[in-house]
């Protein structure tokens, strides 16, 4: 088989690799049918990552099961499934507590798409081995488009976690979104659907702002601190200066969720945060725990994640098209 391999700044190529084989009766082999780039993949391709190439890329896809071990009970060959980005067993103490990104059955942060916690390959591969199929794979609900939900492995389900629980606890909250990619737009869609009273989306890209307005958000190119303006802030830029502006715009006891990958250091306004009583979470998401709820919302018809998909491209275009600057390209396998 082939796996798409990141070899250097803005450069990827197909490389041959052995076809994956079942290594236990709990495993499955999956063929990706709709795979997309995570916002962090764009940063990696631009040379801002912290892992030296080469390595297999990709950690967001809907796939079709092609083979299962004898002990697998929740999926079967032919099923469409969401493949979560992190490797998790489902039975260790951390997994049972919902901390699936910190599974103790594998090295810390084991994942697809980057050689962290071992080499598990990437989801831009012709075939993918899933080590604990019952724990990891989530069947795609009938009627959901794999293209629209290609990001459920990470960005879509992460976006649900960033805002949905907070809106449940504080209905009608005011939401600030400071972003540069798909996560912020998904947050706007979810926040609107779940009853946010006001949404401000901040992004220098005019096309992104247009999509956000379609979700009912007010938009701005840049953010000036808006003291006590918002109950919830979501930062998804990877820039500490933007995170600082977001937390300075929170109302007393406001909550800031940071989904940016901060590869560079910076300073936060800690005294302002102390005086306001800010809660800040910066975390890689335990996404497997949230995928079912995020898919349930997608299936409700209250949201439109397909609007974020910028291009639908053939699988064979991956080496040429992935390094291009697209918001959310989805690569499809017509033969799968």
Automatic annotation (TrEMBL):
Q: Name one Pfam family in it.
A: ADH_zinc_N
Q: What keywords would UniProt list here?
A: Metal-binding, Oxidoreductase, Zinc
Q: Does the keyword Secreted apply?
A: no
Q: Which domain of life is it from?
A: Bacteria
Cofactor section: Zn(2+)
Q: Where is the Alcohol dehydrogenase-like N-terminal domain?
A: 25-139
Q: Which GO molecular function terms does the record list?
A: oxidoreductase activity; zinc ion binding
Show where the Alcohol dehydrogenase-like C-terminal domain sits: 183-299
Q: Which family does it belong to?
A: Belongs to the zinc-containing alcohol dehydrogenase family.
Protein name (Swiss-Prot/TrEMBL): Aldehyde dehydrogenase
Whose protein is this, by species? Streptomyces avermitilis
């Amino acid at each position: 088989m082939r796996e798409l391999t990141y070899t250097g700044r803005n450069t990827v190529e197909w490389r041959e690799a052995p076809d994956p084989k079942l290594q236990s009766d709990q495993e499955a082999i999956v063929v990706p049918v709709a795979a997309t780039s995570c916002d962090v993949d764009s940063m990696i391709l631009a040379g801002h990552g912290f892992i030296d190439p080469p390595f297999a890329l990709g950690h967001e896809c809907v796939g079709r099961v092609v083979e299962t071990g004898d002990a697998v009970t929740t999926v079967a060959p032919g099923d469409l499934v969401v493949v979560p980005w992190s490797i998790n067993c489902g039975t260790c103490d951390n997994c049972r507590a919902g901390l699936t990104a910190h599974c103790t059955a594998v090295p810390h942060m084991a994942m697809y798409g980057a050689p962290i916690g071992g080499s598990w390959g990437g989801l831009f591969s012709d075939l993918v081995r899933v080590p604990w199929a019952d724990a990891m794979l989530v069947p795609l609900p009938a009627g959901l488009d794999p293209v629209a939900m290609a990001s459920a492995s990470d960005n879509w389900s992460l976006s649900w976690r960033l805002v949905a629980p907070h809106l449940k606890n504080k209905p009608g909250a005011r939401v600030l979104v400071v972003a540069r990619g798909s996560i912020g737009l998904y947050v706007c869609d979810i926040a609107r659907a779940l009853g946010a009273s006001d949404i401000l989306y901040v992004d220098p890209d005019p096309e992104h702002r247009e999509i956000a307005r379609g979700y009912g958000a007010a938009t701005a190119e840049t953010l000036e601190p808006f003291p006590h303006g918002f109950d919830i802030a979501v930062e998804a830029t990877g820039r500490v200066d933007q995170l600082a502006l977001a937390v300075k715009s929170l109302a007393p006891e406001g909550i800031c969720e940071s989904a940016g990958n901060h590869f560079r250091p910076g300073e936060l306004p800690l005294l302002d945060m102390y005086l306001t009583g800010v809660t800040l979470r910066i975390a890689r998401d335990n996404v497997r725990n949230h995928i079912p709820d995020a898919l349930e919302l997608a299936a409700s018809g209250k949201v439109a994640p397909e609007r974020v998909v910028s291009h639908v491209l053939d699988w064979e275009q991956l080496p040429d098209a992935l390094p291009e600057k697209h918001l959310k390209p989805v690569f499809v396998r017509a033969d799968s």
